[in-house]
Amino acid sequence: xxxxxxxxxxxxxxxxxxxxxxxxxxxxxxxxxxxxxxxxxxxxxxxxxxxxxxxxxxxxxxxxxxxxxxxxxxxxxxxxxxxxxxxxxxxxxxxxxxxxxxxxxxxxxxxxxx
Length: 114
Description:
This is Threonine dehydratase. Residues 1-22 are annotated as: Disordered. The mean pLDDT is 88. The chain has strands spanning 3-5, 21-24, 27-32, 35-40, 43-47, 82-85, 88-93, 96-101, 104-110. It is mostly beta strands. The strands form 2 sheets. It has a 5-stranded antiparallel beta sheet, with no helix packed on it. Strands 6-7-8-9 form a 4-stranded antiparallel beta sheet, with no helix packed on it. It has a domain at 3-47. It is globular. It has no helices and 9 strands. The two termini are 19 Å apart.
């Protein structure tokens, strides 16, 4: 897990804060502006989901997702929360990680919503 402390952050993340919460290594992190935030007594830590067997980073061109149309383009304003995953950014679609790749989306595995 990569981790560093986020600068001043007025927002307090929690179950009713309005941000998507996902389970990550025994705690809940919140997706906020393309970051994965974890609240601690020392402030906000920024986390990254690691590449694992459950959340691989490989190409899956046969993946067919019902969470969006085939011509959907993931990006900052696509309507899906961005999730830091390994050394790249995925998008949360119907409980799993989507990675834009050429003319398809790779399935980088499920996440557990909090």
